[in-house]
Write a structure and sequence with these properties.
Length: about 625
């Protein structure tokens, strides 16, 4: 490691802007040792450590197959298209590296060819977008949608030709040997380093022991970047979900395929109509708003068992009818599989007595989702990952609370793991000022919004725009944007009006811009220089206590004699605040002000946990110091 990371090592010779960072070398040595000794390791690496190279180089040198799992697809692409090509210049032999994404990121060649012959495209926009895809399909080697810069992010035609498994016939497909998914798997089998994202990793881990084959090839180690996201992502994939939209899509896909492949019959059409009617009646019985726990499953089943049984019967009948189709096309296999998986999910949600799960409903747009989420993922992670993989490395800038890894270890099931805390290379006491206005009311008060709006306006005037204003809820963001947008003399951008990457590019390119956003901009966003000189957060980012998953996890801690507020909710909020503030100082030359419009951090006893978790910012509660900081 010293050969690479020393003051006059290979990296300093190859990269004109390389800076020797002791913390980066410490991290690389710790990962090298963990890989060699087959031990688990947790590393908090402060901003500016250079953690990407600190884990990539030991992974490459280990000679083992190592999975690198990132928080976002953007980071995946940065590693593969920027960092790996740079590292290749340091090695004589070609590096065996690939990246893998979820199937819906890739085009399905068979669907593209079918779309040229069959009437699945509607409107001039879809026809125009399809021509772009058709021409690109003939040239691309990867089939990755990320290459299609000219295709709008919301283009409806992509959903009709992507390679998602819902309609994939696998090895029976005529294009199997030329399939982009097949090619991706072949590259993975030939690679030592496989770069994935957390969603793909846990989707694979969830099905590894099931009848269907895993997505990733066998590996001996995994390194999680942005590891603070693991609990939430793992909960999604080790849980269960079934929705009215799944029924609608199954009916639509079956009907369309039966007509294209000429196996439509009056009986099948009637089965689909009855299935649709029963699904609509069944899902209409659940709460139609928001996200809430559903504790009355037993009572619900007692009152509505005939309708539930009829819905299950319709799914079984559809499966049976599809299996009896003469000279059945290969496309039927995934439809039967979908029907059976939906039946299993629905039966689990309605009839399972598993107390380890919280059962809840959620309305999202036109969708009504029945969800079951593990209350505690630590035991699942221990059983499915930590006990089966030789070395698991977790790294992020936010894994400690008040200097301790205890919260992360307990939530993720890590026992006896090695730990390393690498301090940031930045001088936060000189580069950043942390301001908490003492005069604001409690943000939960009814009249707080008026005073918060005034304070935001005052801070932005001092900073001359150049700010992220981050909110803990969409409703608060929209209300504050509506109040302030016309009053601010700066260009104002709003989350949701354009894709995230486009908004960030526009923010960088627009002098004195202000971006109003929520939690999706609290991490994975890197804006260096004066363009971002201020980060304002509306309040301490406590999760909504009535959220069904949060509520169930808090109750589980309470039942074991613990204090969920101090053991779960405060640590979770402290890590979230740390992430939000991490947007500001991204280089040695950055300067800026961090503003928290919530003085509970100074008034209440638990505020010390937040202060002890944050870097050593210079603190003030006097606005004059904010003005002076910006006037330097």
């Amino acid at each position: 490691m010293r050969h690479f990371f020393a003051r006059k090592g290979l990296l300093s010779q190859a990269h004109p802007n390389y800076e020797y960072r002791p913390g980066q070398l410490d991290m690389a040595l710790a990962i090298e040792s963990a890989l060699a000794d087959r031990r688990h390791l947790i590393v908090e690496a402060g901003t500016g450590t250079g953690k990407t190279l600190a884990y990539l180089i030991p992974a490459i040198l280990s000679g083992e197959r190592v999975i690198i799992s990132t928080g976002t697809k953007n980071l995946q692409e940065q590693l593969f298209f920027k960092d790996i090509p740079f590292l290749q210049t340091l090695f004589v032999d070609p590096l065996k590296v690939c990246y893998m994404k979820g199937r819906n990121n890739y085009a399905c060649r068979q669907k593209v060819y079918d779309a040229q012959r069959e009437p699945i495209l509607h409107g001039m926009e879809e026809l125009s977008d399809f021509r772009i895809i058709r021409d690109w399909e003939q040239q691309t080697e990867s089939g990755d949608r990320a290459e299609l810069a000219d295709l709008d992010e919301s283009a409806s035609v992509w959903h009709k030709i992507d390679a998602r498994s819902d309609l994939c016939s696998g090895q029976k497909c005529k294009q199997f040997d030329r399939c982009f998914i097949t090619a991706m798997h072949r590259r993975a089998l030939e690679s030592n380093i496989i770069i994935v994202n957390h969603h793909l990793f846990f989707a694979d881990l969830a099905v590894r022991d099931d009848a269907y084959q895993g997505i990733l090839p066998k590996y001996s180690a995994v390194i999680f970047d942005e590891a603070h996201e693991i609990e939430d992502v793992a909960g999604q994939y080790f849980g269960m979900s079934v929705s009215n939209l799944q029924f609608q899509e199954l009916i639509r896909d079956t009907s369309a395929l039966s007509r294209r492949k000429f196996f439509s019959t009056p009986d099948l059409d009637r089965t689909l109509i009855v299935l649709g009617d029963r699904a609509e009646s069944f899902f209409s019985l659940f709460p139609q708003e928001g996200r809430q726990a559903y504790r009355g499953r037993r009572e619900f089943l007692g009152n509505n068992e005939p309708l539930y049984r009829e819905l299950i019967f319709s799914l079984v009948l559809l499966s049976n009818e599809l299996q009896e189709v003469d000279d059945a096309p290969e496309d039927l296999v995934p439809l039967v599989r979908r029907a059976r998986l939906m039946q299993e999910a629905l039966e689990f949600w309605m009839e399972s007595g598993e107390r380890r799960y919280v059962y809840w409903t959620e309305r999202r747009g036109r969708g009504l989702y029945l969800q079951a989420t593990p209350i505690d993922v630590s035991s699942v992670l221990a059983e499915r990952l930590l006990e089966k993989v030789d070395c698991v490395v977790l790294t992020s800038a936010t894994l400690t609370v008040a200097g301790s890894f205890a919260y992360t270890e307990s939530r993720l099931g890590l026992k006896n793991a090695r730990t390393l805390l690498v301090e940031s290379q930045f001088d936060f006491s000189k580069q950043a000022l942390f301001y908490v206005p003492p005069h604001l009311p409690d943000p939960r008060d009814r009249d707080a919004a008026h005073h918060i709006a005034q304070e935001i306006e005052r801070v932005l005037e001092a900073s001359r725009g150049r700010a992220f204003v981050l909110f803990t809820s969409l409703a608060q963001m929209r209300a504050m944007h509506q109040t302030l947008a016309s009053r601010l003399p700066f260009p104002v951008l709003l989350q949701g009006t354009a894709p995230k990457t486009a908004l960030i590019d526009r923010f960088r390119a627009t002098p004195n811009a202000v971006l109003f956003a929520t939690s999706s901009f609290w991490q994975g966003v890197d804006v260096q220089g004066e363009a971002l000189s201020c980060v304002i957060i509306d309040k301490l980012p406590f999760a909504v206590p009535t959220d069904p998953v949060i509520e169930a996890r808090a109750e589980a801690i309470r039942e074991e004699g613990g204090n969920p507020f101090y053991e779960y909710q405060i640590p979770q909020a402290a890590l979230a605040l740390k992430q939000g503030f991490g947007r500001l100082i991204r280089s040695q030359t950055d300067r800026g002000v961090l503003v928290l419009l919530d003085n509970r951090i100074t008034r209440l006893r638990y505020g010390k946990v937040f202060f002890d978790s944050l870097p050593a910012y210079r603190f003030t509660n006097r606005f004059r110091e904010v003005e002076d900081f910006f006037n330097v």
